[in-house]
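FIELD: query
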Amino acid sequence: MPRSRNLVASRRRRKKILNQAKGYWGRRKNVYTIAKNAVEKGLEYQYRDRKNRKRNFRRLWITRINAAARLNGTTYGKLIHGMKQNDMEINRKMLADIAVRDPETFSEVVKQAVA
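FIELD: result
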């Protein structure tokens, strides 16, 4: 019985990797073994950086809230503590947006939280 090889599936598998490597520099885009390593590494970075993006945005929001809170005579920690004490449920993303776009409303939030 002759040896059976599934060339259709293996070609499709290789083509998929090479398509993912489009735009890479040098042999990373057209040599399968090198492209496979580059694509795998790229996917690892992509997974890691999806988590890092969330972390970086939270840091940015906290920085903006802290800056706006200090303009209103308090600190970030005291503001968040006061908001928790008064059952004010505004997440950091919305609070940072209010601090940047509408300082008067943010001042009212600070007065309610700290008072």
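FIELD: remark
The domain at 8-114 is CATH 1.10.1900.20 (c-terminal domain of poly(a) binding protein).
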